[in-house]
Amino acid sequence: MANTRSALKRMRQNETRRLRNSAVRSSVKTVVKTVRTTLGAGSATEAEQALARAIRTLDKAVTKGVLHKNTAARRKSRLARQLRALQTASSSS
């Protein structure tokens, strides 16, 4: 248990931040999963809208300090690449 007032305050801050971080991480996972399921379903227009929501959520997670900017960039890039693959596959057939 913390002894000093500053350590007690730091514990309170850490708990608040932990709860916020877990909520943000959960929402990121949800939107990324939504994009992947719509990509799997083969619906390019729905996947495009879901990707836009995912990009916005990932960028917000970066500004809140939950994700590193390169991690968000990598995830956005991979999702966009999967969407492009779906669009080229559907346009060629």
Describe this structure in words.
With 93 residues, the chain is mainly α. It has one domain (5-92): Methane Monooxygenase Hydroxylase, Chain G, domain 1, CATH 1.20.58. It contains 3 helices and no strands. Helix 1 (5-41) runs antiparallel to helix 2, helix 1 runs parallel beside helix 3 (69-92) and helix 2 packs antiparallel against helix 3 (69-92).
Give the tags:
3 helices, 93 residues
Helix amount, in percent? over 70%
The CATH architecture name reads: Up-down Bundle
CATH topology value:
Methane Monooxygenase Hydroxylase, Chain G, domain 1
Rg over C-alpha atoms, rounded to the nearest angstrom: 18 Å
What's the mean pLDDT score? 94
> What is the CATH H-level superfamily?
Ribosomal protein S20
Q: Number of helix segments?
A: 3
CATH class: Mainly Alpha
Instruction: Please state roughly what percent of the residues sit in beta strands, choosing from under 5%, 5-15%, 15-25%, 25-35%, 35-45% or over 45%.
Output: under 5%
Name the poorly predicted regions: none
Shape: elongated
The assigned structural class equals mainly alpha
Distance from first to last alpha carbon: 65 Å
